[in-house]
């Protein structure tokens, strides 16, 4: 568990709201959500289907425009009164954020190494440097032995670890995951959660994961409960590793 007394939050959301559509078709997906997540914390977003979990993750990941609120990422004010303060959100994402999706979303015609290296090349690394760093990351995630494999040849757990390597490629300090263990058995889910915690500690990062997965609840420091777009409650977990 992190010490939050003197640390600055990596993610600070204040009064975030998001609605889709207007009038009769309006859906209030997030209502006045405020959260703070600190370095080295592993935090879960939990709630029924449609409660706003993915919407919240996408707002934090700067891939969805909120309707109102303010947001600070890694000590930088990025959103104020529902307006982005940066014009280049793609660069902001590349600099600060790693995304892990439920299904691994690997590019099917690139091998494991190139799936990871691609992100590095997008960030401006040359091909050789990108591939070297990709192999290093795959080794770190203990899938180095599969570095030349195409995604279709990887097991679910291996593919998810390659996807995690990709999310980490640019050393983001904010890692967002939408149901990262949903497709895995409990042993593999445990391995992925151990890895995420190791990352949080070793890279001084914050991990925010949406989950329905009861077998991993005890792996989180805190759980935010969402209901109808509102933060319902917060559970602290004294047992988390
Ligand atoms: N692009 C969109 N356009 C319109 N409504 C949307 C859009 N995206 C989400 N919504 C609505 O916003 C609400 C929150 O959706 P969200 O995907 O965040 O839920 P969730 O908690 O992730 O659900 P699940 O557990 O099923 O993944 C839902 O009512 C959904 O229908
Ligand atoms: Mg969702």
* Order of strands across the main sheet: 7-8-9-3-10-11
In terms of DSSP E residues, the strand content is: 25-35%
How many angstroms separate the termini? 7 Å
Domain module tally:
1
The CATH class is: Alpha Beta
Structural class: alpha/beta
CATH architecture group name: 3-Layer(aba) Sandwich
How can the largest sheet be summarized? 6 strands, mixed
Q: What low-confidence regions span 5 or more consecutive residues with pLDDT below 50?
A: none
Task: Please name the fourth-level CATH homologous superfamily.
Answer: P-loop containing nucleotide triphosphate hydrolases
Please count the beta strands (DSSP E, at least 2 residues each): 11
Q: Give the overall pLDDT as a whole number.
A: 90
Q: What value does the Rg take, in angstroms?
A: 18 Å
Order of helices and strands: EEEHEEEHEHHHEHEEE
Helicity level, as a percent range?
A: 25-40%
**Number of H/I helices:** 6
Shape designation: globular
What small molecules accompany the polymer chains? adenosine-5'-triphosphate, magnesium ion
